[in-house]
Specification:
- By secondary structure, the protein is mainly alpha-helical.
- The chain has a single domain, classed as S15/NS1, RNA-binding (Helix Hairpins), CATH 1.10.287.
- Helix content is 75%, strand content 0%.
- The longest helix is centred in the last third of the chain and has 24 residues.
- It is globular, with a radius of gyration of 14 Å.
């Protein structure tokens, strides 16, 4: 269920602000979104997997906190991330 190195590197390359950026809020949000999407697909198949459900809810909460941080500090970047990841319909 975890992302492999190639997928993570691809996401980092797409959302990074600079070449060496791997921990900015935008990158973290993108990685969490990919993990959330994979866990959501897993949960649709395995409805009684409560440990994965807890992990999913924790990731959603962390992403929400990062999105709030980004919205408060850099609204332009927030709007770009929302648009790229197709969040907030």
């Amino acid at each position: 269920m975890a992302l492999n190195k190639e997928e993570k590197a691809k996401i980092i390359k797409e959302f990074a602000k600079s070449e060496n950026d791997c921990g900015s809020a935008e990158v973290q949000i993108a990685i969490l979104t990919k993990e959330i999407n994979e866990l959501t697909a897993h949960m649709q198949e395995h409805t009684h997997d409560y440990h994965s459900k807890r992990g999913l809810l924790m990731k959603v909460g962390r992403r929400k906190k990062l999105l709030n941080y980004l919205k408060d500090n850099d609204i332009v970047s927030y709007r770009e991330v929302i648009k790229k990841l197709d969040l907030r319909k």
